[in-house]
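Hi support team,

I submitted a single chain yesterday and got back a structure, but I'm not sure I'm reading the token output correctly. Could someone confirm the output below corresponds to the sequence I sent? I've pasted both exactly as they appear in my results page.

Thanks,
R.
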Amino acid sequence: MNILRINKIFKIYIYLGLALTVILYFLKGTIFSASGYQIIELVLVSAGLIVIPLGIKSRIQLSTHDKITNLLIFLYPLAGGSLLLSVFLQIGCLSGGLSIIWFLFSILVLIKVLKDLLLRGIYIHRETFIDIGLIYLSIGAVWFSASRFGFDLLGFSPFIVTLTAIHFHIAGLGASVVAGLIGRVFNKNNFLFYKISGTLITLTPIFVAIGINSSPLIEFLMSILLAIGIISMAIFVLKNTFSTTFNKLSALDRIKYSVLCLAQLISFSTMVLVYIFSYGELISTSFISYDQMVRYHGLFNYFAFILPSILILSNLASKNLIKPEKIPFQKLRGKRYIGVNYFKIENSNSKSEKGLYKNFTFLFNLGALNYSITQYFEDTANIKMYCKTEWQKGFRLISRGVHYFGKLIGQFVLP
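Hi R., thanks for writing in. Yes, this is the structure output for that exact sequence:
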């Protein structure tokens, strides 16, 4: 399935999500709220219908297409529908049962993300920010399911359970995907300021949640770091929009970037509310009530910051998106033991390929590559390579197991 078809399918999902969000707003009085605030469930479901599919689309666009990808695309309507219906049923087995479908879908997303993340490597990068955001979905889905069953998960009240669910869907997933898409749009991934801001945005939500459920001090400190990350990212967007981008844009794109910048400015005020609230929790003084946080921080953070940001960034990032071609691995198979003579033994009576790749230089897109390296990968049957490898600290114990099993099957054992 090509990028154009993926974009078309997800466009339909997003338009339906926007329409259902409007309908849901007028029907919010019929929502069975586990938190006592129907607006919390409304925002959470809206995120599931718009933000989550946009996050999934952003990952699928730049990853290897496989069976899991197909499942994510075609099972999303079932998962999104179950999420929507669950909030219109009384808290209990039926509502909780529907939420399990959303949880199982989140596990499928987790598998896809971990597969891509481990293949690409774990390092500070805009794509890693998107991956970490999508990992938060499975955590949020656990808490959402608990809220729909009416469980006091880990001994916390239904209000805190539901609040934690929306925290991971919005502050965790939404903000992290926004950070990653900002990196795609402005294409300044190696900029240190961007990396620090994105790292704070993606790593602090889990610690904020821990603080909410255990320690006001941890909540306060992590909320400050999260606020710094979001405000720094907003400054990054504003600076790059008006200093290097704005004058080169079409009239329509200028409107898009203007709305994006306005959303970033609104994030300043929502983060100030977080600071005031968490500081009040720390010193046991209520400057802002839970009711005010839900109505002002929750609504503004989602409808005025996260939602418009991710809608516009997703559109801008998809404009000139070119999906990388698949790595041209040979489709070679072996028996139990491979060994150094694999090509000579397996291919001696056939005209099969002689190397691991047909065109190794394809991977690098370089004008010149060391000939001996190219020759080894393209003519593996006739070239020997000797190498000395070292593992990073903390992984050396693992390396022993890797080398042991690698030798058993005659594999090429490199860290």
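A quick pointer for reading it: Residues 330 and 386 are 22 Å apart (CA to CA). Let us know if anything else looks off.

Best,
Support desk
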